Amino acid sequence: MKDATSSRTCIGQPDFHTPTNIQDAAIKAIRDGKHGYTPSAGIVELREAVARDIARTRGLQVDPADVVVGAGAKPFIGYTILSVTDYGAGDEVIYPNPGFPIYESQIRANGAVPVPIHLRESRAFNFDPQELADKITPRTRLLILNSPHNPTGGIIARKDMEAIADILRRHEQVWVYADEIYGRLVYDGQFTSIAALPGMQERTIISDGCSKTWAMTGWRLGFVANRKLAPYFTTWITNTESCASQISQWAAVEALEGPQEDANRMRDIFFERRNLIVELLNQVPGVTCQSPGGAFYVWPNVTQACAMVGAKDSEVLRARLLNEAGVAVLADIHFGPRVPDEGQHIRFSYAASNDAIREGVERMARFIRDNTRGARSAA
């Protein structure tokens, strides 16, 4: 195997250090003896900070009592499914495909029926709202939305979000889990929360956290807001994780309320990297890459590249890139079943330095050039 210089282009976490002011807040919490358990729903100071942040970023009034803090945002996916579906009763959850793999696995683990809704390249990796309307049945209990999106970086445009809300108003039994963890990493267009649309806040679980914006993946700090379900989420936390780390909670207060220069700087760097990797990938033989509107992933189409090197699909290409070129990416099948008639895709994360991005893409391009059937035949 080649060296792993470019392998960081596979990892879905910021490559920055947590801002110093946030580190200092955590150290102060430790020095002040804030080491113990907290209320299951989180410290009041953080719940109040989250409520203020939701007002700033989404224009919504949220009571701090409706906010619940957890050890990362991920657990709330499972807590939501457990709260709105009955195990083994045939309740359905619609989720994006491709999508964060935990959506489908949590749906299955908690006894619900996963119903994928396909994100299409022709729609900038969004789904057709009419397809959503067609998939909703009397058994549908939950719709999972993720914007900006992992793995494609796509953003649900406001007009599509409004169309989704119009559809959901006809189906009062359907909750919405709005995974907005990348909501501050938007480069094109405007972030829209479905909770901000008329009549949608009451039935939407707003899910966010500190991992992406403030480079705090290892601090494990996420939060949700919903008035009706907050007591249920609190009960789940009481019976599972007890509470999020008190130290991380005080760090999160500083993340939300403190200076934002570092967060803004990281976002600006991601934006520059987005432009760089899209430009470079579109120069690679057999690869086309749309420019994603947010997050820190690209989802290039490698259908032609697979054919050029004799790889039957993107998973074979992924393995060969790793083993023969030292480039770590993820294939589309790691994010759900391939979307019919959409070809082959891989995911790059551009949470890596410009040099690592250039090196990784160049290794990929060199691998394709050196292994095309025509090149081998000519040799």
Would you give an account of this structure?
The chain has 379 residues and is an alpha/beta fold. The protein folds into two domains: 7-16 and 262-378, Aspartate Aminotransferase, domain 1 (Alpha-Beta Complex); 20-257, Type I PLP-dependent aspartate aminotransferase-like (Major domain) (Aspartate Aminotransferase, domain 2, 3-Layer(aba) Sandwich). 40% of the residues lie in helices and 12% in strands. The strands form two sheets. It has a seven-stranded mixed β-sheet with strand order 1-7-6-5-4-2-3, sandwiched between helices. Strands 8-10-9 form a three-stranded antiparallel β-sheet, covered by helices on one side. Helix 1 (20-31) crosses helix 8 (246-257), helix 2 (44-58) runs parallel beside helix 8 and helix 9 packs parallel to helix 12 (354-371). The radius of gyration is 21 Å and the shape is globular.
